[in-house]
Each structure stands twice: as C-alpha cells, then as structure tokens.
Design goal:
The strands form 3 sheets. The chain has a 7-stranded mixed sheet. Strands 5-11-12 form a 3-stranded antiparallel sheet. A two-stranded antiparallel sheet has the order 7-8. It has helices spanning 18-21, 40-58, 72-81, 104-116, 125-136, 167-173, 194-204, 256-259, 295-298, 301-312, 315-318, 323-334, 360-366, 378-390, and strands spanning 29-34, 62-66, 86-90, 149-153, 157-159, 178-180, 183-185, 284-286, 291-294, 340-342, 348-350, 353-355. The radius of gyration is 21 Å and the shape is globular. It has a single domain (3-191, 284-390), classed as Spore Coat Polysaccharide Biosynthesis Protein SpsA, Chain A (Alpha-Beta Complex). The chain starts with 17 loop residues before the first helix and ends in a 14-residue tail after the last helix. Helices cover 33% and strands 11% of the residues. α2 runs parallel beside α3, α5 packs parallel to α12 and α7 (194-204) packs parallel to α12 (323-334). α3 (72-81) links the parallel β2 (62-66) and β3 (86-90). It is an alpha/beta fold and 404 residues long. It binds guanosine-5'-diphosphate (GDP) and manganese (II) ion. The site of guanosine-5'-diphosphate has 12 residues, from α5.
Length: 404
C-alpha cells in the first residue's frame, strides 16, 4: 500500500458560499488559545485573521487559557474583536508544572543543561511546562469539557484564504479525528529519546500500524517511505526490526518500570549510537500550532496511556519534547491514515513557516503531502509569491478561496 494512494480529498471543491454554509447546524466546538497577557498584540493579530477568514460567518466560541490570570486589558480588548462567546480560564497547578513524582532539582538541572547546549527553548522552564500542558492536559480543562472538537489558535498566526465551510462538520462527516495543514521536521536535539518511547508504547500494547506510523519512520536504505522496496532492491530475508532484540526501536532497553506505566527516575537513558537498528524517527510531525481535532481522542484511554508512559520517562523535562511530535506519534500509533485530514486548502502562516494552497496542487502530484514543508527562506518566499501572482482561484479546485 502506497501512502500516495491514501491521499485524502479536500472536503469542498471550489469555494462554498459561506452565507449558505452558515445556516447549517454547528458542531460542538471551540477555538482554544493558550496565551499570556504580554502576548495580547499577537493574539489580536490572530483573532482578526480567524474572524476575517472564517468566524464572521460561523461564530464559534473561543476559550482562552493561561497559567496566570488574564488582566482586564487583555479580556476587554479580546471582546472587541470577536463575533462569538468567549471564556477565559486559568490553568491550575495540577495541569501546569512539575508532577509530584518528579524530582524538581533533577528536572531543573536537566533544563539548565539544555540551555547550555543551546537547544531551542531547551533552557526555558515555562516552555517545557507549556509543551507538557498541550500534550496531556488542555483537553482536561473544565472549560473544554462541554466541547467535542477544538481548533487551536496561537498568537501571531495568519490565515490568508477564506475558509468557506465548516471544517468540524466535514471532519465529523468523514470520520476524521485529526487535521493539520503543515508537517515539518523536528530539531533532533529536542527529542533524542522520544521515538524509542513511542515505539515501545506500540510494542508493549501490541499495536500494529494502521498506515500512519510509517510516515514517521526514516526509510531504510533501499526502501521507500511507505516501507516498500525501491525498484531493483532485493530485501533481505529478515529485517532488523523483526528481530526481537531490536523490537523497541533500535537501541538499548528502556527502563522496565516506565514501560509498565510506573513513574521513572526523572532521567532518560543514554542512546547507544552503536545499536542503531530497527526503526528510526525521521523527525516529521504535524505542526500543532494549527490543529483541528476530536477531543474524545485525546480523552481516550489509549491516548492517556500513551501520554502517561511518555510523561513518566521524564522526557518533558530532561529533553524538550514538544506537543507537536507527541500528538503526531500518538496519532501514528493509534490512528489510521484515513482518520487524518490534510487541510491543504487552508492558507496558514506562523512565524517563518507557511502553507500556501496555491502550491498544493503541484505538490500533491509528486510529493508526499505529509512531508511537505514550506520554510520561508528568501528563495521559497519568492517562489511562493510567483505561484501566488499566477494563481487563479476560479480555476483551482478546492485549494482556498479569496486568498489575500
Ligand atoms: P513557538 O510557536 O513554538 O515558538 O511557541 P510559543 O511561544 O508561540 O508558545 C506556544 C503557545 O503556548 C502560544 O500559544 C503561547 O502563547 C503559549 N505559551 C507559551 N508559554 C506560555 C506560558 O508560560 N504561559 C502561557 N499562558 N502560555 C504560554
Ligand atoms: Mn507560536
């Protein structure tokens, strides 16, 4: 089975009429925005974009979350820009910060070392807390209990095409669980051990891939991304990953207590570079600052078990595991390809990375869309602009409407 044959289709071909769409029943869904008071300007920028390109028709509510208290300036300003109900919530200590089984001194020392090693955000304690919150807690917040779906919004994001249909309803109708618009490669040094644990979770729970896991596996020499042998390559009788010795992803054994679901020591095992066999992480992940997903998946026992095992390894502190690779590897272990939706028709930018639907048709043909990456270096930016200038929304099917 080739990944190419499993591409999902855009939900709506061409532009829908939002004036008609908005008359249809809504899903039980909300935007979720984690932010701090000082990020107000960036949040407003995001809200303006969301409202302009989607929510002025659909009026989905917003839930703002913060580990501190939102001040009145923040709350009052937000209310000026939204067209729907808003709730502001505080995240309690149970969902933010060190769990009681972690030795804080060990964790803080681990974070300090990551700072010294110049690992991106590695030395920032608050960033570690944020990643852990988005990995295992946001969906447990009391303000989200009434919702079935969420759409994540961050400060300083921009949508550049009108989203003329209801993505929640279309995901529901098509049995989708998780939607993304950009997939990128993670910085290796932020997640040295993450794949060993994710892979061990799969093994310990006897999970077999439903087609998505392969997306995250570095292809071995002679093999394609989907695991099929390249033309002219004769596979050996036995793959290293079939050897039980290597079954937990290429390296030294992981601590048995963690695999049993018990709290670990708060430290992570060293990786033995000589034991490189079996599966290797290709660093690919869905960029989770945009994410539309079913909350009941996050709330499932399987996801909770996954989070618990990952958490107990100490990787949220001793390494700087992001919520993006956590969500992605959980999806890889638990979901089928057909449950994932690529919102190729959503034009989206955050910081230096963007997805432009105008490029999607070309990329769809040859590339694996999951591995698509648009980094805005100068050349890429120029190419994007050229595509953009020539792009005629009337001629393209389902790749974004009234983009500006
Ligand atoms: P980046 O996109 O990976 O560079 O990370 P960001 O700095 O944008 O953080 C990701 C999200 O978490 C954004 O929505 C931030 O507003 C939010 N965030 C990060 N750190 C904190 C924090 O300490 N407190 C709160 N309340 N939000 C945070
Ligand atoms: Mn951000």
């Amino acid at each position: 089975r080739k990944i190419n044959e499993k591409y999902d289709k855009v939900f709506v071909t061409g532009c829908a009429d939002p004036e008609v769409q908005k008359e249809a029943p809504r899903a039980n869904a909300a935007f979720v925005v984690l932010a701090r008071n000082k990020e107000l300007d960036g949040v407003i920028e995001s809200i303006k974009s969301v409202e302009r390109h989607f929510n002025r028709w659909f009026h989905y509510p917003y839930v703002f979350l913060n580990d501190g208290d939102f001040n009145s300036t923040f709350k009052e300003t937000i209310l000026k820009y939204v067209s729907s109900p808003v709730e502001f919530g505080k995240i309690g200590p149970d969902h933010w910060g060190y769990p009681d089984w972690v030795d804080e001194n060990v964790a803080k020392e681990g974070i300090r070392k990551q700072g010294d090693a110049a690992i991106m955000y590695g030395g920032m304690e608050s960033y570690h807390k944020m990643c852990r919150f988005y990995s295992g807690f946001f969906y447990k917040h009391e303000l989200l209990q009434k919702y079935d779906w969420y759409w994540r919004v961050e400060p300083e994001i921009k949508y550049f095409c009108d989203m003329t249909y209801d993505p929640f309803i279309h995901m529901e109708r098509n049995n989708k669980t998780y939607g993304f618009t950009i997939a990128v490669k993670e910085l290796k040094e932020t997640v040295p051990n993450i794949f060993r644990y994710a892979s061990a979770y799969k093994r310990v729970n006897n999970l077999t891939s439903q087609g998505l896991w392969e997306m995250f596996v570095e292809p071995k020499e002679g093999y394609n991304q989907d695991g099929s042998p390249k033309p002219g390559f004769t596979p050996p009788d036995k793959l290293p990953k079939d050897d039980p010795k290597y079954s937990d992803a290429r390296m030294k054994p992981l601590p048995e207590d963690i695999l049993r679901g018990e709290p670990g020591s708060g430290t992570l095992p060293e990786i033995d570079p000589d034991a490189m066999e079996g599966e290797t992480y290709n660093m690919c992940h869905f960029w989770s600052n945009f994410e539309i997903a079913r909350l009941d998946w996050f709330r499932s026992k399987e996801y909770e078990d996954f989070f618990q095992m990952m958490d107990r390894s100490g990787g949220f502190w001793m390494e700087r595991w992001g919520d993006a690779p956590i969500h992605s590897l959980a999806a890889g272990a638990l979901l089928s390809t057909s449950q994932i939706h690529y919102f190729r028709d959503f034009g989206y930018r955050h910081t230096t990375i963007q997805h432009c639907p105008a490029n999607a048709p070309a990329r769809q043909l040859e590339r694996q869309p999951y591995l698509e990456m648009t980094t805005l270096d100068e050349r890429a930016r120029r190419e994007e602009d050229e595509y953009w200038a020539k792009w005629d929304p009337e001629k393209e099917n389902g790749v974004g409407c009234r983009c500006r």
